[in-house]
Amino acid sequence: MNSIPISNNTNSILAEIKKKELVHVDAEGVLMIKDCILIQQFTGKAYTYRAVNYLNGKQQYLFYKKSPITEENHGDIAEKMMVLSFFNVDYPKDGPEMVEHIFRKVFPSYGYVVRDEQINLAKHMYETLCNGKISLSDVPVGLGKTHAYLVATIVYKLFHKTGSLKPVIISTSSIELQRAIIKDYIPEISKILMAHGIITSPVTCVLRKGKENYLCDHRLNDYVSTLDPDKKKNSEYQALTQLIEIQEIDLDEVKGISNYDKRKICVNNNSCMTCKKQSSCRYQKYMKQAKRTGYHFQICNHNYFLADVLRRKRGLSALFPDYTHAIIDEAHKLKDAANQMYGTSVRQDEINQLLRKALPKHDGSNVKRIREICNEGITNNDLFFKEVIHQIPKEIEDEDTEKYKTIITQRARVFLNRVVVNLEEILRLLPKKDRKLVADIKRNIRQMKIFNCSDIIYWLEEPFSKGQTTLASVPITLSKELGQDLWTNDISFLLTSGTIAVDRDFNYAKNELGMKQVHKDRIIEISKGTPFNFKENCLLYVAENIEYPDYDNPKYIASITDEVERLIRASNGHALVLFTSYKPVRLVYQNLNERITDIPLFQMARGRSDAINAFRASGKGVLFATGSMWEGVNIPGDILSHLIIVKLPFPIPDPIREYEKTCYSSIDDYLNSVLIPQMLIKLKQGAGRLIRNETDTGIISILDSRAGANGRYHEAVLAALPKCSITSDIQEIKQFLRLMKDKTYFK
Q: How far apart (Å, rounded) are the C-alpha atoms in residues 659 and 476?
């Protein structure tokens, strides 16, 4: 991407100036430089050449030739064009002008809508990149933040040569957005900018993922050789054998192969260390290519991005080439990724499996002792997990939490330390040639020792799934560590999300991400309003006579069941009913499934998405859901015209939040600084499921009495949601939908 590019891609501009009748219909385009295009026309005897400024229409005859000019003449002709009086008169002189030019003059010719707020956002992002600062931008659905930061970054590279070979990192939470950036956004923008001569070569990008997402040639060949074609499903067997020949190594892009098979043929942790086929390995070649500096963008998820940060911190080889600019999209999910990457976990069955793998297969020296230690280690491991599971408070055993409070008692520590001793002794006796097993044992020893530290917050996951129990932890100082590792260097960051601020206030996000230690002048904050007409297209219903929320109170369950039924009937289905946990989903669904027979009802179970597809196909169904349905799921069209939020989504208590509470002087302080912002951010995410484009219309209903006119959070809830008409009368829902929907909606 050169600052004064000569482009041979003239078709788009030529079509534009022919439409304006600036040149003859038979004219041909030869080259473009900035705002001028060289036009060639055959007169019957010779080829005439003229320069045309496609922005202001000015033009000048240059010369004629008896035969067409060749590409080797383009440089000399471009120099002649650059001294013309109308050359570069209206062409953007700097980055902000180029951003304006692209959004106001280039994109509209391809059907894009001009949005002033999007242009202002892109210019803000460009200035942030120029000044080496950190931008926090809260940008609602529909404004076009992805186009904004991609254009800002491409323009930055156009006008800044220093470091232009270094990639820009784009980190997102979802694979869907990563794929869209690589397959849709970047190719489309690249094509448009090349067509207008702004860049001369395509914008390049590469997707970076963990090694388990890629194909291992060695494991593939070994696995296929063990398969019996008569016993394996034919389509899967064919897909696996074809994979040996084709060049694709990204397993997410391979069709017809089960997840089980993918686990058998993916690149395995530590398997590369002993592989004899490294020189011919497709994965190794791909990684070598991906790490080169020639790509404009390297795209990954938050976990991979933080893995690179941690590797650099520990003095290990980096995953990315050196970079000076990074974009964190879906930035509200960065802290969740940090909990995983900076945290530690040990799983009961993984430790037992390691101990079983260490059991000798043949007789030899130390065999008897190794067997004794392995069996002893399994016993100690099971006793350790039994003890910490026993410490879960009885009152939370049935709660809908993923992080269960426990206590590592003195008795538990005895078993923990015994397991560590067992593993260390096995390590001394094991043959060193089994490098993968040795590496796995060392990793688990390091992780288990962390649970003897006092500066961690720890909890249990899946404590009631036999053998699957995991003990996990994060450092108490996580936010501080994150701040030190990310924001104290010279890298410029664009952090953007639709839910990173609460009523234009970024304090919660800054505290979570450890930005307290960053000088306030380095952080720039910007919030944008929705481009959609919520005032006309959305009605907010707030219930006033619902019991105080308490899932254990039968009167409350009966109250919300009756209200949800009234609302479903008012909108003739077409509804998503969002809960904050699975227990009320089940209770309310079961109650209404017996009472509503003319509208299809669907219950979303934990870890299942089939109900979502059934709901989409139902025409006017109702989906009862929680979990992932609060964000990231797009259901376009009239099938979702009524979003019913049963309870304000305050976070479920867990050990992390219990510790956070101790960091504040009072419960009110904690409530205002942490719990309310978390609730409002998730409320915004949930509300964002309804209006996804300019033509969507519908109802948002909130059934929590605390959001009512006299409720404690009434004003905060209204401030967090887009401005729209408010009612507490169900009849107004019916009237609104009759006005906004066509007749087929009510059938």
A: 8
The per-residue pLDDT for 2 is: 44
Q: Structure tokens of 734?
A: 């019916």
Residue 396: burial class (beta carbons within 10 Å; 0-12, 13-18, 19+): middle
Cβ contacts of 672-676, under 8 Å, gap ≥ 24: 673/507, 673/508, 673/511, 674/508, 675/650, 675/651, 676/502, 676/713, 676/716
**100, containing H or E segment:** helix 95-101
Q: Distance between CA atoms of 502 and 499, rounded to whole angstroms? A: 7
**Which segments of 246-316 does DSSP mark as H helices, in order?**
259-265, 282-290, 302-313
Indicate the length of the chain as a whole number. Answer: 747
Residue type, 157: K
Residue 256 DSSP code: S
Residues 603/586, Cβ–Cβ less than 8 Å: yes
Residue type, 229: P
Structure tokens at 21: 């009748």
Report yes or no: 56 and 39 within 8 Å, Cβ to Cβ: no
Burial letters 132-149, b for 16+ CB under 10 A, else e:
ebbbbbbbbbbbbbbbbb
pLDDT tens digits for 154-170? 999 999 876 567 999 99
pLDDT tens for each residue of 377-430: 999 999 999 999 999 998 775 557 889 999 999 999 999 999 999 999 999 988
Q: CB neighbours of 604 closer than 8 A, spacing ≥ 6?
A: 585, 611, 612, 623, 624, 625, 626, 627, 629
User: Cα 478 to chain center, whole Å?
Assistant: 21
Instruction: Name the nearest CA neighbour of 638 among 572, 584, 685.
Output: 572
For 686-740, what is each residue's pLDDT tens digit?
999 999 888 999 999 999 999 999 999 999 999 999 999 999 999 999 999 999 9
CA dist 745 and 747 (Å) reads: 6
